[in-house]
Amino acid sequence: MEAKRADNIASTVVISDRFGERRAQNAHQAETAETALEPGVKLGRYLIVNRLGGGGMGVVYKAHDTELNRTVALKVLPPQLCKNPEYLSRFRAEAQAQARLNNPFVVTLYSMMELPAGAVLVLEYVEGETLEQRIKRRGPLPLPEALRIFDLALQGVSHIHQMGVVHRDLKPSNIFLAKDEQVKIMDFGVAKLMDGHDTHQTAAMVGTLLYISPEQINGRDTDFRTDIYTLGISLFEAVTGRLPFERRTDYALMHAHVQETPPRPQTFLRQIQPALEWVILKAIEKEPERRFRSTDEFRAALIGQGLVERRRGRGATQSAPAKHSLPDMTLLHQELMRYRLTPPNRLLGGLALDVALVAGVVMLVTTLGLYPARHAPMQEVAGVAGKTEMHAGAKATTDNNKQLARKARHRLAPVATAPAAPKKSSYESVMQSLGG
């Protein structure tokens, strides 16, 4: 894990007022800076090597485990923040969510400690860079590289969902690329346990505004399909180097996620296959019911259209998929058939795509041992709207933040609920051009 990666683990809260001006809430960051641990200091059996990064919810260090003789990463919530029950509760919830997970595509949590120096998460240390850093360094990724990364990421998120966890903040800065090109999902600071209490039931919106789903903005129920949306936005960015929604104000950005039709990826990169456009635009549909129902279904579409190879990632372990995650072969087949083109010169292409997608789903059914699907029960999330841009970690919520968030929700609500004239989505346009 490098210093530039750790900045994504400790959080910063940004919230906007009615004019869209961004204001960072830095009071706690100043306090954490004052209590930074110097190299050579010991936290239990862990010897601090150096500081990797920090933010409003703590500081991340590279450390040496003196008993097991290995390098680890320590995420430390300083003692002054531990005195706040809300902060400590969120920190514990992050640990409980990540503790459920045991997968090569997820950063491993070794343990949690509560010491005089603060609450500590002991995490797997990995060297490399985030997907966000790679995109900034190189621009749009070659399609085979981007699709390989997301194939592995989807396998990791599938495991996360099987364990009953919704990440709620999937984005390129939380997809880590190790030096050996292994993919690791990290940062469970705002994760939700589907079978537990949501510690983020506040007036603050949970997520990162550039990637956040419409239901998170509107305060609707969030489930596994929320992660489908944020993964779709991230895939859009990885292959085009651009985000589908970039606006000057926070309110305009929220409006875009809730109301506006996303541009076709080919607008930014002509060589993107229509089949890949279809996958991306289906993942980022406004209504969760119109998206892929699961990461397995998302991946089945990529495999079925020949966009990724039919293989499991290195080190992946086979496990029975959760009932909510099962691809519905019939549903996808019917969906493609509805949009199939009729002109003779396009019909064969549409039929070929249809057959390929079905083949991909059949492959997953055979490989994973799938059985008839059901939707997982959804639980209500009370906290909504406001502007937050959150990088990894539980989010601070002051009284002022709550007031601003409620104001933003009030301003956005008429836009989100007002009836609009029916119009075709970009996804439907792509489906027609595909012949699906």
TrEMBL record:
Look up and give the organism this protein is from. Candidatus Muproteobacteria bacterium RIFCSPHIGHO2_01_FULL_65_16
Keywords in alphabetical order = ATP-binding, Kinase, Membrane, Nucleotide-binding, Serine/threonine-protein kinase, Transferase, Transmembrane, Transmembrane helix
Recorded hits in InterPro entries, A to Z, give: Kinase-like_dom_sf, Prot_kinase_dom, Protein_kinase_ATP_BS, Ser/Thr_kinase_AS
Q: What is its EC number?
A: 2.7.11.1
- The residue range of the signal peptide is none
Root EC class: transferase
Q: What is this protein called?
A: non-specific serine/threonine protein kinase
Q: Where is the Protein kinase domain?
A: 46-303
PANTHER family recorded for this chain?
Answer: MITOGEN-ACTIVATED PROTEIN KINASE KINASE KINASE 20-RELATED, SERINE_THREONINE-PROTEIN KINASE NEKL-3
> Does the keyword field hold Cell division?
no
UniProt region (Disordered), positions on chain: 411-436
- Which stretches does UniProt call biased (Polar residues)? 427-436
Q: Where is the composition biased (Low complexity)?
A: 413-422
Give the stretches traversing the membrane.
Answer: 347-371
Where ATP binds, per the record, is at 75
Could you tell me one molecular function GO term of this UniProt entry? protein serine/threonine kinase activity
> Is-annotated flag, keyword Transmembrane helix?
yes
